[in-house]
Design brief:
With 241 residues, this protein is α/β, with parallel strands linked by helices. The chain has 4 helices and 17 strands. The chain starts with a strand and ends with a strand. The chain binds zinc ion (ZN).
Length: 241
């Protein structure tokens, strides 16, 4: 699997001859365009986890000819920008639903923000993208709000318990200070994600896992991209440049 960082929570993932694009709101180095012009793929799927500006932008309409499907969280349907997408190529997914065609299977989960998480199975790889699902623990917030955030997160984690994925994209957001990796830590401990890519951390230093981040015996390879266009190959041995 080859993974290219676009920006924020935006990634291009190539597994076999399938291209998956996630939350491409901005692609400063035109990595998706580059991959499309190389032409070395059979199918392109473009995912949007929710309609926030830092996850969704209409420039992805430029890929309409190449796209097999746009797979959007249902909240995108009700936006002006969402209505610009060709209906015959666009699938809207509610939370906890499934969609498949002859090449891929997609499962959606709920978020703790808006929209969905996606688990995409291409037959060659299982890819989990959290969207804005996270344990949003803001130190400055009143205790009761932090409790609500915790409960919302734990409620979804129950549904994700034991989830298997070859790679999981998960927010580690520097705006939360020391709490930035609380969600990712819990997620890694309770799922069977085999590799972690952190995201949603524009403008903050790269995250490094503290000594107690991975549960004992459950260390997995991780990658914390920071520069648009950065690329890694992921296989059993971990991430390689
Ligand atoms: Zn976001």
């Amino acid at each position: 699997m080859e993974i290219t960082y676009l920006l924020n929570s935006g990634f291009l993932v190539k597994t076999g001859r399938t291209l998956l694009v996630f939350d491409d709101f901005e692609d400063p180095v035109h990595a998706v365009e580059g991959a499309l012009s190389e032409g070395n793929f059979d199918r392109l799927y473009i995912f949007v986890s929710h309609a926030h500006f830092d996850h969704f932008d209409t420039h992805i309409l430029d890929y309409a000819d190449a796209a097999e499907r746009y797979v959007f969280s249902n909240d995108v349907r009700h936006t002006k920008r969402g209505k610009l997408f060709p209906a015959e190529k666009t699938v809207y997914m509610k939370t906890y639903s499934d969609w498949e065609d002859e090449a891929i299977h997609v499962k959606s989960f709920d978020s703790t923000d808006t929209g969905t998480c996606f688990l995409v199975d291409t037959g060659e790889a299982k890819v989990f993208h959290a969207g804005d699902f996270n344990w949003w623990h803001w130190t400055g917030e009143p205790e009761k709000d932090r409790l609500l955030a915790r409960n919302a997160f734990q409620k979804q984690m129950k549904k994700l318990e034991g989830l298997e994925a070859d790679v999981a994209f998960f927010p580690v957001d520097g705006r939360m200070g020391d709490a930035w990796d609380m969600g990712a830590k819990e997620f890694c401990a309770r799922t069977k994600a085999r590799a972690l890519v952190t995201m949603h951390n524009v403008g903050f230093p790269a995250w490094r896992p503290p000594a107690d981040f991975f549960a004992a015996g459950r260390e997995i390879p991780y990658w914390t991209p920071g520069t648009p266009g950065e690329k890694r190959l992921l296989n059993e041995g971990g991430f390689k440049e």
